[in-house]
């Protein structure tokens, strides 16, 4: 297992961890920076100071209770549904591709795509706010048209790695897809 540091599209530090289980099975995980206590404390303090100012003006203690309640609920929602610590891609040549997102709360979201549905894995580009942004995606084969694409599944949407990291993941995926194609052609 090797881990290399990279940067996200926004410049935040991320890490790519590669683990090769066998010749046709690789796991690639992009780890995002953890939630910083400093930023969490700053947001909480700002909300509570604003609530205290409203309390002083209105002399209603419900303002303080509501601020505490909203802050706690907001933090739980953020940790459980928004903040992703790690996104991983498990590519098994004979079986399929598993995409997993691990949230800060410990919740995991997993999607599995059978290898028979995978047409290709590509690096795509998009223009966003006068910037070119690259992203990795899986092209799913159209069941009605073998040459067509039915769906595009973007990967690493939360971590948004830069092109150098995406190329590394792309090469690993392509090696396994090529092994699968040569295996199918020989049989």
From TrEMBL:
<dbReference type="GO" id="GO:0006506">
    <property type="term" value="P:GPI anchor biosynthetic process"/>
</dbReference>
<keyword id="KW-0472">Membrane</keyword>
<feature type="transmembrane region" description="Helical">
    <location>
        <begin position="40"/>
        <end position="57"/>
    </location>
</feature>
<dbReference type="Pfam" id="PF10181">
    <property type="entry name" value="PIG-H"/>
</dbReference>
<comment type="similarity">
    <text>Belongs to the PIGH family.</text>
</comment>
<feature type="domain" description="Phosphatidylinositol N-acetylglucosaminyltransferase subunit H conserved">
    <location>
        <begin position="88"/>
        <end position="157"/>
    </location>
</feature>
<dbReference type="InterPro" id="IPR019328">
    <property type="entry name" value="PIGH-H_dom"/>
</dbReference>
<protein>
    <submittedName>
        <fullName>PIGH acetylglucosaminyltransferase</fullName>
    </submittedName>
</protein>
<keyword id="KW-1133">Transmembrane helix</keyword>
<comment type="pathway">
    <text>Glycolipid biosynthesis; glycosylphosphatidylinositol-anchor biosynthesis.</text>
</comment>
<dbReference type="InterPro" id="IPR044215">
    <property type="entry name" value="PIG-H"/>
</dbReference>
<dbReference type="GO" id="GO:0000506">
    <property type="term" value="C:glycosylphosphatidylinositol-N-acetylglucosaminyltransferase (GPI-GnT) complex"/>
</dbReference>
<keyword id="KW-0812">Transmembrane</keyword>
<feature type="transmembrane region" description="Helical">
    <location>
        <begin position="63"/>
        <end position="82"/>
    </location>
</feature>
């Amino acid at each position: 297992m090797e881990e290399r540091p990279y940067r996200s599209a926004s410049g935040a530090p991320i890490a790519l961890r590669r683990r090769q289980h066998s010749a046709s099975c690789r796991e690639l995980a992009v780890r995002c920076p953890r939630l910083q206590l400093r930023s969490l404390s700053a947001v909480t303090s700002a909300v509570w100071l604003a609530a205290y100012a409203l309390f002083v003006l209105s002399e209603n203690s419900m303002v303080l209770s509501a601020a505490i309640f909203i802050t706690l609920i907001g933090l739980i929602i953020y940790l459980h549904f928004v903040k992703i610590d790690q996104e991983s891609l498990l590519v098994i040549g004979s079986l399929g591709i598993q995409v997993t997102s691990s949230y800060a709360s410990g919740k995991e979201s997993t999607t599995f795509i059978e290898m028979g549905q995978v047409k290709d894995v590509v690096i795509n580009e998009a223009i966003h706010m006068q910037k070119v942004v690259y992203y990795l995606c899986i092209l799913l084969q159209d069941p009605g048209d073998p040459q067509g694409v039915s769906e595009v599944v973007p990967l690493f949407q939360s971590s948004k790695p830069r092109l150098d990291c995406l190329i590394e993941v792309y090469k690993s995926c392509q090696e396994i897809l090529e092994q699968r194609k040569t295996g199918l052609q020989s049989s």
